[in-house]
Specification:
Radius of gyration: 15 Å
Helix content: under 10%
Number of domains: 1
Distance between the termini: 45 Å
Strand order of the largest sheet: 2-1-5-4-3
Oligomer: single chain
Strand content: 35-45%
Shape: globular
Number of strands: 5
Number of helices: 1
Order of helices and strands: EEEEEH
Largest sheet: 5 strands, mixed
């Protein structure tokens, strides 16, 4: 069982069959609407062999995500 915390998927619970393999370490959710595309990333925190929580990754402003030219 996987739980999503934060962002547009907050509170969503996903039950994953074992045959699907291990859950991805990061899930990307893209919201398309009348305005610009909005992307949210969730990082997995495993709790037990069969359960985990995806936490919303904090947003990094564009000017902070680029390496500095120092």
């Amino acid at each position: 069982m996987l739980l999503f915390v934060g962002g547009p998927l907050d509170g969503r619970v996903e039950v994953r069959e074992a045959r699907h393999g291990d859950p991805l370490p990061t899930v990307t959710h893209v919201h398309l609407h009348g305005g610009p595309k909005v992307v949210h990333r969730y990082d997995l925190q495993s709790l037990t062999a069969g359960a985990g929580v995806y936490h919303l990754r904090p947003r990094v402003p564009a000017h902070e995500s680029e390496p500095s030219a120092d």
